[in-house]
C-alpha cells in the first residue's frame, strides 16, 4: 500500500521531503551483510540522463520513463542451475517455467528455458549433474549473472561432494560477482537436512566474493521456489540501481 501526496509544481512533480509517495526498496541481504535502504526515487535519479537542477523537481515524463525502465526490461539474466544428479534441478526448472512438476529424465548436456518473475527475465540453463558431466559446467560460465545450486536435502552421504563442486565453481574468475542461490530441495520428505545444516556443511558463511542465500523448497510440490527467485529479483534490481 503506497501512501502520501505529491504536489504539482511549475515545471514538474514536486516531491515531499519525506518522500512518503515513493515505496521503499530494501536490499534483503548480501555477501558482506550490509543493508542498503533505498527508495525507487533515489534509484530513478541515478538512471543515466535523468537529472534535474532542483533535486526535488522532476519532469513527470522523466519520472514515468524511469519507472517504466525499472519495472520493464527485455534484458535476460543468465542463470546456471547446477547440482548433483537426482537433486531435482530439472523439476525445479519446469516448476518455474510451467508452474507444474513434470516427469523428467537425467539431463545429458543441458536444458534451457526463459523464466519471467516480477517482470525480470531469466535465461535458466539446467546442467547435467552426473560426475562425468560436471567438468563441462565451466563451458557455460561466461556472462553468468547467478548460480542456483539445487541440493537433495535427503542425500547426506554426498553432501561433501556438493560442497566440493560448489567451491570449485565459485572460485572461477568467470563467475566473479555472480549471485548464489541455494535451494535446499526435498523438504517435503522425512529425515531431510535443514537449510541450517546444509549451510553449515557447505560452509556458505565462508563465501566472501558472492552474495548468497539459502532457501528451503520442494520442487515437486512447488513450494519455496518463488521466495528464492524473489531474492534474485531483489539482487538484480539492487545492482542495476547502482
TrEMBL record:
Domain of life: Eukaryota
Ligand binding (Mg(2+)): 90, 107
Transmembrane segments: none
A GO molecular-function annotation: metal ion binding
SUPFAM superfamilies: P-loop containing nucleoside triphosphate hydrolases (SSF52540)
Family: Belongs to the small GTPase superfamily. Arf family.
Protein name: ADP-ribosylation factor
Natural source organism: Chloropicon roscoffensis
